[in-house]
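Discussion board: Methods & Data

I've been asked by a reviewer to show the raw model output for two of the constructs in my manuscript, not just the figures. I'm not sure how much to include, so I'm pasting the format here to get opinions. Each protein appears as its amino acid sequence followed by a line of discrete structure tokens. Is this the kind of thing reviewers expect to see in a supplement, or should I convert it first? Here is construct A:
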Amino acid sequence: MAAIQLLRHATLLFDLDDTTFLVDPMLSEPGGIPPIPNSPNDRENPRVDLPDVDLTYDAVLVTHRHRDHFDDAAADQLPADVPILCQPEEAEEFREDGFTDVRAVESTIAFEGTDVTRTPARHGHGELAEQMGPSSGYILDGSQTIYLAGDTVWYEAVSETVDAHDPDAVIVNAGAAQFVEGEPITMTPEEVGSVRETVADDVPVIADHMEAINHCLATRADLAAAVDGVAIPDDGERIEL
């Protein structure tokens, strides 16, 4: 059994068998985070409320520590002893935040019957991707295999991950996040279409990471108009996989 519930942006409750992961918690009140610098607009973040849901989970899975994926509110509100699964480069920062059970995912670790494998991600193009710092995706493998692509553009490692792991579902961060200069740093509608074309027709592709942060310029409507066969959940919506 697997299901995801989108809270907002990239914050998910992800159920796999008997384990629930809280993914990329951004828990601030609307307007609690300043606009992303060097963006095409100056709207404060998050732009939408956090749905009223039961935040019950067994572990926290963080793709990277940009503040729209792990914010100060999450650092303050999450229990100090909650297991945090993260990139090796960021493990010490979580410990400095006071978390006592930080588990760096070098390649694959087991958690409560789920194998968690870190996968490559490229958070932008060219020099901008280097400036954005490391970002990761994850394969979660239990009774089903789910690919959380994380903050990445479409490039060869995404298709290689699909080929290597043959996932039962793929979750992509869309929104075409962009600065004033340079290309988008998360998937555009066209790149989500490339994911859709790469996986088998019966494999769900689910897109999040839209309409909550000021520099995510592609909307749900933009994506729905550009690509067929992609699930685009509303905030608070749960999808059984």
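Construct B, same format:
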Amino acid sequence: MVTSILKSRFGLTRRAAVLGLGAAFAFGAPSAPALAQETLKVGLVAALSGQSAKSGEAITRGLEVAIDEINAAGGVLGKKIELIRRDDESNPAKGLLAARELVQREKVVAFFGGIDTPVSLAIVPFANQAKVPFIGVWAAGTAITRNGAAENYVFRVSAVDELVDEAMIDYAVKTYKTTKPGLMLINNPWGESNEKGLKAAAAASKLTIAGAEKFDNNDVDMVPQLTRLKEAGADTIFLVANVQPSAQVVKSLDRMGWAVPVVSHWGPAGGRFTELGGPSAEKVHLVQTYSFSGKLSKKGETVLAALKTKYPQVTTLADVTPAVGIANAYDGMHLLALAIAKAGSTDGPAVRQAFYEIGTYEGLIKTYSKPFSPSNQDALGKGDYMFTHFKGAEIVPVN
């Protein structure tokens, strides 16, 4: 039918029309494919399997609840939003491949990222080159948004290592009278980011670092590293790692019989930390941006009710752990929808500019006011963090 229309309107033969269409698809000639679709597609590249699968599940739930609200209100630009997910398996190469597929094949108008800083860092150059907004809702590596690009398409509703490190230092000094912390860091770019940030924050607070020890994801015995920190006089451990290695740090401390306070980045929130780390995992205090425990705002009550309705398996507050993934993704999706609506288009550069023009949005984590600017593409700051700990499978505020 398409070829007959082309022939009747432009005098093309069937063969020429088919060849023309083939060339158009081969070179991606249509400049606005997303607008021609029945829905506006948004993507997610996250850990949907493995030890950090709970993080991907939480992000998915936050996005889907927000999308349901947006679609119920008529969608964006007169179209419903559709979520398309890809599992990065916490692997940077697989994450980059997934991002390319979402942008080039699925024609997403924007896409979200998951828990792993190395995966997000692998994706950042592609997002900027493709001019497609990439919204981080968990990975905290400072360089993800502060990437030096002349035209930066990476936005974030999440923690930022540099600011988290300052918060961890402040909290340890206030709570444990810390004077000589030791660092236990995952041996990857996320660990490197926090080593730099923690050392700078410690120096600013006139603290002496007892030492900085590294370990890998699959290590099962951290006793040697911890022993060196103990002998160096460490009075607090700052921990930066995701679920599996963090659990091994806790178990190694138990084997040593060393009851040192542990203040952690939020990596342990992404999976079965108490199950893997044992009872002492509950003693670890970790950063979060949100908790469904305690008295909730009206927005919090609405989102929690929506989660229980949409996901029958949500029956207790432990079932909405990690709340940080849900909350960051929920607010991130609404901010993206506001940017697309303000742009009046799904064109990447137009949406990027519209992010800077968002005014006020009453979100789940906070009320945002001008959340993004060309000099700051992180919507959350140091004042938006809280410290929590596991209580069984639930993450609750420390106080």
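Answer (T.O., handling editor elsewhere):
This is acceptable in a supplement if you add a one-line summary per construct. For B, something like: The radius of gyration is 23 Å.
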